[in-house]
């Protein structure tokens, strides 16, 4: 009898730790520093370095594992990612890989063939749960925020009211289903400052824009607001974004809805301001990382 958790401990974690140790050493960290970052002993780091720890090639060669290891190694080496944040990101990936039909689920069913032959409607590796969905949204949002924090010049795109990068669950119905930054992102002495980790239900304005756009047919799961500039609109258009103007002096849901209905392909919504209303641009996208990439291209 083998539980999938045993497979994670016996094969996934040694593989990922080995990859991380090697990547961190390549980035100039000493064995002692690698041990501190990974929470393991120096002798364990030495064993990883000399190939004395058995690893799983299928796990090591998975593109998602490789991508996350490289991203975390960069963040841990620079100090932009804490060990706790790295742990969360790895946990999210593990949950994804345990989902029915994915890598860890496949390895588990190969190790215990009886699972695949079990006649019950119950599946050990069940489809996405609400918790896993929420974890993935927050993980994507954290990655998008890190990209923006590290993007030189992003602070110059933050409006006076502050920016917020938000992302929602696939079946979002209200602001509680949208995650964002509590207190928004502000320009503090020329540096974009994210005051705390993202949470669900903390964004009213940008979340409302995203929800209104989705309610009227927009295929988007994330959004951000930046300062308005006609040159930014021109550059977004040149890069392939469809744009639509709306009037924020009206009800926000109605205004966004009318703009989307006039241009269903719009991924950039903007209003040019009014009495007491700051002009803003809203960029919509499939996820937080994609939006961060779009914003970085404007800098």
UniProtKB/TrEMBL annotation:
Domain of life, per lineage: Archaea
MF-aspect GO terms: DNA binding
Residue ranges annotated for the HTH cro/C1-type domain, each copy included: 20-48
Pfam family, one: ThiN
Protein name: Helix-turn-helix domain-containing protein
Organism ancestry: Archaea, Methanobacteriati, Methanobacteriota, Stenosarchaea group, Halobacteria
